[in-house]
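Hello,

Our lab assistant flagged a job as stuck in the queue for most of the afternoon. It eventually completed. Since we weren't sure the result was trustworthy after the delay, we are filing this so someone can double-check. Below is the sequence as submitted and the structure that was eventually returned. Let us know if re-running is recommended.
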Amino acid sequence: MKRLFFIAILGILVFPSYALGQRSQSAKKYVKQGIQSFSRGDIAGAIAYYDRALSIDPKLAVAYLNRGKARRAGGDLDGAIADFETVWELEPGLAANNRDVAQAYLNRGYIRSNHLDLDGALSDFDRAIGFDPSDADAYFKRGRAFLIEGNVKFAIADFDKSISLDDRNPLVYAERGLARQTEGKTDEAQKDFERGLKLNHDLRLMLDMHLLDLQMQMKEMRRRQAAFQKNIA
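-- returned structure --
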């Protein structure tokens, strides 16, 4: 009788662990199938597999990570970032120094910057840099947002950092030149313009058009800031 009781208790203790292990394996199987679908270019199919995995195991960080990658590839940046934030909560090591995660924030930040949502853009660029501190493009784009905002010193600091990580981007020199020109540092600005032009194989038109677009955004931002100050005065 005691033996039967012991076996019954053992079954109660072991069975839930066994069932949990089976569910975990089943969820991971769907993640694997999702990765295979994604590698074939079937983004919708991949997301469907990741959804099934998460319906079985809602705390499976690798499923959120891969679904985030698929959502980003499909253009759903908000959905991708929501998944990556969940990864960060569940298993930070998977998200740290992950270029896919950083790029999602970088892409959304750039879109926000172009729409002059600078608070949102700067927040996204901060997150991108947090996930991938060695990404020169993230510092460049954050510097651009600072410049549009009118924060020239912060802009130059980010341009400097971007150049220290990758000194081959002509646009960084062009924008740092504009920032230095704004500060009245004409000699340093001219050196940056010349360096940018050289890196761009002396194709001046593209750089001129790029800077013209940037100056228009800066002008529009100043107009909005002035209107805001007038409204609260």
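-- support follow-up --
The delay was a queue issue, not a problem with the job. The result is valid. Residues 2-39 form the longest helix (38 residues). The chain is about 85% helix and 0% strand.
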